[in-house]
Amino acid sequence: MPMNEQPPWGQKKKPTGPEDFLAILIQKIRDSFAGKEQKPKPNGSGAPPPEEQPNLLSSASKIVAIVLAAIALQTAFSSFYTIKPGEVGIILRLGKYNRTSQSGLHFKVPYLEDLAKVDVESVRKEEFGFRTRSPGVNTAFDRKGYAMEALMLTGNKDVIEVAWIVQYKISDPVHYLFKVRDVSQMVRDGSETVTRRIVGNMDFDYVLSNREVLAASAKKELQSQMDRLQCGITLVTLQLLDINPPEQVKPAFNEVNEADQDMKRLINEAEETYNKVIPKAGGSAKKIIEEAHGYAAERINRANGETNRFKAIVKEYQGAEEVTRQRMYLEAMQDIIPHVEHVYVMDKSQQNVLPLLDLSRKTGKEPPAAETK
Questions:
Q1: C or N terminus of the chain, fewer CB within 10 Å?
Q2: DSSP string of 300-350, one letter each residue
Q3: Distance of alpha carbon 90 from alpha carbon 114, whole angstroms
Q4: What angle do CA 355, 357, 360 make, to 5 degrees?
Q5: Burial grade of 324 (CB within 10 A; 0-12, 13-18, 19 or more)
Q6: What is each CA distance from 116 to 19, 88, 189, 319, in whole angstroms?
Q7: Among 47, 56, 42, which residue's Cα sits nearest to residue 9?
Q8: Cβ of 78: how many Cβ atoms within 10 Å?
Q9: H or E segment and range at residue 234
Q10: At residue 371, what are phi and psi to the nearest 5 degrees?
Q11: 0.70 cut: is pTM over it?
Q12: Residue 72 has what pLDDT?
């Protein structure tokens, strides 16, 4: 037998691996807490070996070492933390805000600093008047049980159902965590207050035809309210999805809507006829008036011209009466004679009138045209 070997009956079997060591350690801890004593095994001769005194100090020191090792390991692991992309880490030192950590691996003082991770990239959504049952390409919605959220009263005392959504992102993680206890509930309450007030100030037809304007106004007012309360969020969108009358009054509403459409159609037809007839009549009246003004101006100008001509002739006549009279006579004859068809010569010695045969004038008869073969 080699020198360094021991007989199997002179020494206890040592653990061969970490599993055996861990099992023995757990068993010792159980025995130490339960006060269990190990019974000595008999030796080869059949006589019991001498009793050994338990080493309590050794067991306690092992337990303390194990606890200290666990605490050290936990401390090492809790000192480092990782922030994912799209998140920020809020570090509190003794319960007070200390700093903000961006994405990556960071260190914090264990047991003195606490970490709160906030997702600042995800878009959160609040639904009113409905709930999304199965999102996807064919999204399914559930409206049962949410009628009270959608019922509103318009400015002209009509009941209307409005379904809308509010989407927002976290812009200030510190305010989001510590200024308001429940930000999502604050968004719901503020959105309902703003939307109901805006819809309540408008009549039914305006709400139906101007949902984009109302949504923009509600978003602006809600964002102002969230900033005033320091919620730490930024609204992405506020959209009015569905605006309808309640199911109980839909038939009556459709009849009223049809009557309103007929009224608008008749008004449009009347305006079309008015735009055709009235401008035409106005144009005709203006034409007649302008023609009358033109005729009056023509008559006045002609009268003024004849008056000035007569005055000029009188002035010339007063300067040379005989010459002027002769010239006027010749001008008058020049205008009259070309239109005279018969000329008569008056002779004082003759008792009858002698007609003048004017051979230079045409007889008015044309020769017959040659026949064409």
A1: C
A2: HHHHHHHHHHHHHHHHHHHH-HHHHHHHHHHHHHHHHGGG----EE--TT-
A3: 8
A4: 145
A5: middle
A6: 38, 8, 26, 123
A7: 42
A8: 14
A9: strand 233-244
A10: -75, 140
A11: no
A12: 75
Q: How far is it, in rounded angstroms, from Cα 254 to Cα 246?
A: 12
What is the C-alpha separation between 286 and 292, in angstroms, rounded?
Answer: 10
CATH architecture of 124-244: 2-Layer Sandwich (3.30)
Q: What is the dihedral of CA 113, 119, 121, 122, to 10 degrees?
A: 180
Q: For residue 3, what are its two tokens?
A: 């020198």
Query: For residues 241 and 164, is the Cβ–Cβ distance under 8 A?
Result: yes
Cα distance between residue 94 and residue 179, in whole Å: 18
Please, which residues have CB within 8 angstroms of residue 190's CB and are 6 or more apart in sequence? 222, 225, 226, 229
232 close to 216: Cβ distance less than 8 angstroms: no
Q: β-strand 113-119 against 124-128: which pairing, if any?
A: unpaired
Give the pLDDT confidence of 40-55 residue by residue, as tens digits: 455 555 555 554 445 5
In DSSP terms, 219 is beta-bridged to none
The per-residue pLDDT for range 231-251, each reduced to its tens digit, is: 999 999 999 988 888 877 778
Q: What is the residue extent of each domain of the chain? A: 61-118, 124-244
From CA 203, how far away is CA 209, in angstroms rounded?
Answer: 10
From residue 97, alpha-carbon distances to 21, 103, 105, 169, 299 in Å are: 45, 18, 19, 21, 100
For residue 80, what pLDDT band results from cuts at 50, 70 and 90?
A: confident
Q: What is the pLDDT of residues 153-189, one digit of tens each?
A: 898 888 888 999 999 999 999 999 999 999 999 999 9
Residues 87, 177: Cα–Cα separation, whole Å? 14
Its sign, for the CA torsion 315, 319, 324, 325, is positive
Under 8 Å between Cβ of 81 and 89: yes
